[in-house]
């Protein structure tokens, strides 16, 4: 099987997501965390994380522990994977901040203050990490 048909290049996956997010957020100038909608310095209303793999789940956990966002949305192509991480993170929330965390889809990026893209291409065992497009 040709690798390019099984897994599209990273840029082919991420660039459309970035374009969609840019169209959904008309005012994308850097505003600083204190100027976002919540009004509280250092507080962000919603963070959307695209990609619920190891990096995305760890990012969500770090944000949860920090208490910075008012809400975290975890987005993944495999919704069940995102929901599984959400359940685990809700258990962790019992011992930290009470930040709501939900599994969502790309439409949740429309009202997100911060969008973090952690999606990537699956690496095959025979591939060197430098050979990924």
Describe this entry's structure for a reader.
- This protein has 133 residues and is α/β, with parallel strands linked by helices.
- Helix content is 35%, strand content 17%.
- The protein has four helices and four strands; from the N terminus they run ααβαβαββ.
- The protein has helices at residues 3-6, 10-24, 54-66, 79-93, and strands at residues 44-50, 69-75, 101-104, 114-117.
- The chain has a four-stranded parallel sheet with strand order 3-2-1-4.
- α4 links the parallel β2 (69-75) and β3.
- It is globular.
- Residues 24-38 have low confidence and may be disordered.
Quick take:
The chain contains 4 helices and 4 strands. It has 133 residues and is α/β, with parallel strands linked by helices.
Q: Can you tell me the residue ranges where pLDDT is under 50 for at least 5 consecutive residues?
A: 24-38
CATH class: Alpha Beta
CATH topology: Rossmann fold
Measured between the Cα atoms of the first and last residue, the distance is 17 Å
- Quickly count the helices: 4
Radius of gyration: 16 Å
Round the mean pLDDT to the nearest integer and report it: 76
CATH architecture descriptor text: 3-Layer(aba) Sandwich
Shape: globular
What portion of the residues fall into strands of 2 or more residues?
Answer: 15-25%
- Quickly give the structural class: alpha/beta
The helix/strand series, from N terminus to C terminus, equals: HHEHEHEE
């Amino acid at each position: 099987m040709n690798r390019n048909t099984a897994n599209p290049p990273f840029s082919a996956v991420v660039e459309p997501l970035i374009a969609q997010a840019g169209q959904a957020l008309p005012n994308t100038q850097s505003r600083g965390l204190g100027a976002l909608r919540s009004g509280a310095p250092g507080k962000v209303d919603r963070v959307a994380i695209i990609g619920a793999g190891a990096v995305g789940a760890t990012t969500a956990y770090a944000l949860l522990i920090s208490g910075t966002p008012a809400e975290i949305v975890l987005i993944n192509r495999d919704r069940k994977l995102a929901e599984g991480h959400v359940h685990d993170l809700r258990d962790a929330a019992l011992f930290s901040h009470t930040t709501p965390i939900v599994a969502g889809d790309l439409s949740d990026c429309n009202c997100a203050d911060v969008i973090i893209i952690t999606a990537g291409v699956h690496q095959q065992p025979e591939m060197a990490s430098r050979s990924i497009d």
